[in-house]
């Protein structure tokens, strides 16, 4: 895909991740424990070969953003610059690598506009495996669920930390296999077919970023 630098904190392009396993997800209600604005977020775990294409794309986006930043950066800041890795190695409780790769997807629940004097509210869009849109109300997504995410690649730079990276800003996600606390932890739908929502959970039809032809390897 073509990446376009539009300035720091502005999306360079939208991409679908491969299907990953949720780790400590907070996807159906905003997490306000550490951020008053509220945040929808989750870590996603992949086998190393599953994430290679996305990792290369994120690195390409970071290289573009770094090159643009260096055009106006001071020489002293260039020497101190460190690069943030969006794709990292997963570690167990003893700090040993598990062999899996981890990414973090997130979006803020609210954003204030001083210019307009308004507060805007956002939430991720959700689809089941058949691209049927779902309502977040009453939906629970627990760790171990298998989902794919649509994310915006957003460059950022911290002047305080002299660090530059790419944020995977969540737009929406598709549930492939659901695990939650209400059904013993396992979806009643077969893994081949994927998770399909009950009609009571569905929303009006909405354009999904996930094609019916998408494979578990994601869509780049």
What can you see in these coordinates?
The protein is mainly β. The chain has helices spanning 52-70, 75-80, and strands at residues 14-16, 20-31, 39-47, 82-83, 88-91, 97-108, 110-113, 118-121, 125-127, 133-134, 146-158, 163-177. The protein is globular, with a radius of gyration of 18 Å. The model is unreliable at 183-191 (pLDDT under 50).
List key phrases describing it.
38% strand, 11% helix, two-stranded antiparallel sheet, single chain, 220 residues, 2 helices, five-stranded mixed barrel, mainly beta
Outline:
This protein has 220 residues and is mainly β. The protein contains two helices and twelve strands. 11% of the residues lie in helices and 38% in strands.
Q: Give the overall shape.
A: globular
Question: Structural class of the helices, strands and pairings?
Answer: mainly beta
- Written as H for each helix and E for each strand, in order along the chain, the element string is EEEHHEEEEEEEEE
Major beta-sheet overview:
5 strands, mixed, barrel
Name the helicity range: 10-25%
What multimeric state do the chains show? single chain
Rg over C-alpha atoms, rounded to the nearest angstrom: 18 Å
What is the secondary structure topology, with strand pairs?
Blueprint: E1 14-16, E2 20-31, E3 39-47, H1 52-70, H2 75-80, E4 82-83, E5 88-91, E6 97-108, E7 110-113, E8 118-121, E9 125-127, E10 133-134, E11 146-158, E12 163-177
Parallel strand pairs: 4-12, 6-12, 9-12
Antiparallel strand pairs: 1-11, 2-3, 2-11, 3-6, 5-6, 7-8, 9-10, 11-12
């Amino acid at each position: 895909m073509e990446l376009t630098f539009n300035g720091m904190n502005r999306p360079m392009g939208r991409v679908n991740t491969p299907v990953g396993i949720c780790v400590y997800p907070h996807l159906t209600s905003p997490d306000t424990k550490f951020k008053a604005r509220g945040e929808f977020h989750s870590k996603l775990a992949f086998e190393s070969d599953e994430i290679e294409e996305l990792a290369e794309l994120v690195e390409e986006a970071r290289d573009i953003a770094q090159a643009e930043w260096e055009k106006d950066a001071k020489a002293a800041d260039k020497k101190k610059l460190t690069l943030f890795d969006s794709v990292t190695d997963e570690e167990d409780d003893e700090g040993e690598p598990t062999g899996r790769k981890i990414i973090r997807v997130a979006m803020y629940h609210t954003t204030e506009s001083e210019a307009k004097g308004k507060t805007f509210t956002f939430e991720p869009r959700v689809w089941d495996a058949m691209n049927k849109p779902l309502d977040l109300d009453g939906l629970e997504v627990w760790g171990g669920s298998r989902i794919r995410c649509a994310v915006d690649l957003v460059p950022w730079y911290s002047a305080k930390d002299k660090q530059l990276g790419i944020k995977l800003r969540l737009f929406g996600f598709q549930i492939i296999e659901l695990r939650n606390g209400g059904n013993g932890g396992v979806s009643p739908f077969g893994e081949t077919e994927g998770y399909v929502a009950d009609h009571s959970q569905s929303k009006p039809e909405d354009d999904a970023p996930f094609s019916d032809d998408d494979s578990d390897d994601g869509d780049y």
